[in-house]
Amino acid sequence: MANPKVAFFKFxxxxxxxLNVLNIEPVLLxxxxxxxxxxxxxAKRDNHHGPYTIGFVEGxxxxxxxxxxxxxxxxxxxxxxAMGACACTGGVxxxxxxxxxxxxxxxxxVYAENIYDPFLASIPAKGIDFYVKVDAYLRGCSxxxxxxxxxxxxxxxxxxxxxxxxxxxxxxxxxENVCLLVSKGQPCMGSVSAAGCGALCPSLNRQCxxxxxxxxxxxxxxxxxxxxxxxxxxxxxxxxxxRKYAGNTPEFSKGAExxx
Amino acid sequence: MLxxxxxxxxxxxxxxxxxxxxxxxxxxxxxxxxEFVFAPIDSAADLRLDxxxxxxxxxKKYLVPPxxxxxxxxxxxxxTGEPAAPGKQLLFGVHACDVNGMLSLDKVFLxxxxxxxxxxxxxxxxxxxxxxxxxxADGFCSSFNTGxxxxxxxxxxxxxxxxxxxxxxxxxxxxxxAAGLAPAADADRIAKGKAxxxxxxxxERHIDTDNLGEFMHQNVDNPVWEDLKERCLACGSCTNxxxxxxxxxxxDQIDLTLAAGERPRDWxxxxxxxxxxxxxxxxFRPDRAARIKQRLYHKMTYFAQxxxxxxGCVGCGRCATYCxxxxxxxxxxxxxxxxxxxxxxVKLYTPPDKKVTPETSxxxxxxxxxxxxxxxxxxxxxxxxSFADPAVQEKYTYDSGAFNEIxxxxxxxxxxxxxSCADVKGSFDHTIRAVGNxxxxxxxxxVGDIVGVRGPYGVGWPVEKMKGKNVLVVVGGVGLAPLLGTxxxxxxxxxxxxxLEILYGGRSPKDMLFTDEFDDLRKxxxxxxxxxxxxxxxxEWGHNIGVVTTLFDKMSSKPDNTIMITCGPDVxxxxxxxxxxxxxxxxxxIYVSLERRxxxxxxxxxNCQIGPLFVCQDGPVFKLADIQGLPEAAL
Lengths: 260, 635
Hints:
By secondary structure, chain A is α/β, with parallel strands linked by helices. Chain A has eleven helices and five strands, in the order βααββαβααβαααααα.
């Protein structure tokens, strides 16, 4: 049987998630023996059109042109995967959505007038599921490579990967890390953010930034209150924390709104 | 009686620990700035016996590791049973709360269906306890008599009385370790008692345990819970750090061959939305307030109801220490006591008294071969299985209404009720709807394919009690599968039962199961079969239209000398039961089959709990009278 055809696409983002694919060295060759990469502009010269079995999409959608491209990609992919924070929730590009400026003001602020081009026409940054149906999500900035490989395995078997979107605290406690928030007074987002990363940042003594977006049924408003009342963060700081990676989500919006 | 006791001068601690290290891996409290954790030590110099508490409870960390492999498989070939022999380990300096937490976990893991992994570790673990002469900041152990000193559960216990420790012996193994120490003098024993009494008096945090179970059951609707819902982050830290929380999740992992892999368990938490998730994304406990309540109720009373009165909370205070939202059980209990709900008669739950000790590992599925597949309707098939090993098949018996855990290696297990009649020998049936990962994979299987089967588990229908009585069967949708075996049993032993009446409702005619057997059911002597559908969807339908309770006016069953058995969606059973009670039927004559996420089937993983019930082992069939009025039971 022919290997499933896989494609990698990119919208508005840093390209780190695509690069990250190449970081699975220990299993890269094995993975390549079970899938055929048909389209991956960053990694190969010879790219082919669809249809594809699995399409991985990196990046937020920020221009009307990208919306059209995304819809075409959706048509070409049996399984469409949002790859990384930008594709999942809008990610860092979505910070602009909360700038308080309209698009015209934003364009004029960011670009010098003499280089303005219609190509720069921009719309609020959204995750790809704002426009098309998404079959699976690889959350995080960047996503976890273990989850990437797991997703490929489950997709090959035709199963739902059933990633468990509970809090980072779970993985952090299982590693018996010192709690950065309770014991060190740092505004760690782990309690409201989805795990799957193995509590990577807190394990390295860095507070969770919430790059994987909200955990299931998280209570961002309560954490925002803790940030302000117990840790003394300013309103602006709290709002920025909840709008850094996943401000588009209803869950983290509640965190930002609780601070405003 | 006087406990055998010795003294260990503090100056000799180093040599004492060095001696222990000769026979064991010694694990003790060490600093992890600014907290403490239990970890293997090189020498007594690493020990921080002045620790207040540790992030994880040592017994839980070293007896039920956060991740543990239950079995490995390669294709349908499995390897289970023997856990990798754990080395001999010695936990040095375990506080009284955690020693008592371990005794509570013993009830879970060494009770019915003893867990071989826990058992092996437990048998290879020596506990050197450390009584607390300085209470920790958040603890409230004295409320549950689980500290500051320990009475049992240790091999040796140490009490600091200044320049030396009093070393009490709790077991033969402990006595051997104390060899060479000088016996304790009366003055040493008196000093120990005095130190512990002084410590106890210094504990300022208390939970009023007076009538605790009844009190909790009277406060299910207290507004305190809604307030907690606003604060709780649902992060699950409280359960992870709890010395008695035992729930775990099982999910198969596969390598890139897609055929070989392992089945690990990971600590899970009832605070997570997906904890009670089943296929089709149905979540039994979606409300955060209900999840917080589940945890605190489990700590305060359910655990004791489930496990012979063992404490579900040992007052270690970790959940309060590590809660970002500062939810503290001591404060919660004070708030409840300050503004209590109405006092009312409360019945606590007593689970059926049974202990099963299987010869093989309870985690080991037996291989079973599909001998027939029959399409029931658009999304249900009936599979007939026989165990690959004829000896296993020969010994296999089950109660109608019980269930098996069916394994597709590489995906996982699902609990499925047995739909064949217990009279049938040589094979058994499961009627399965393709809705999740495992059942969708089942749907692709062919005759001759192999799956794994563990079981049977659970309490079935009360067939013996039904003998000599009329039987009313009220069933909705796929709920007929766990009832069909009983109906056939009645048909096979017709003279032992009175009248049989079956009320069967489906969403639409195409959703009904076993339609080709309806004529056979009608032919059973002294039997009526009444059918209804919510909506006939334009199909030809010569029967009633409406929900199943609309058949109650047409039934001939009367409450006298009749047992009603019912299975269907929760909402259907709720209305059916309410209606029948209104018609004068008694909770003593109504039996219901409940469904939850019965992930392990053997009262270990905790996923299927409804209030104090373990659906997998206390049920799934319950007498209504036994569960009526219990929190969460919803019937």
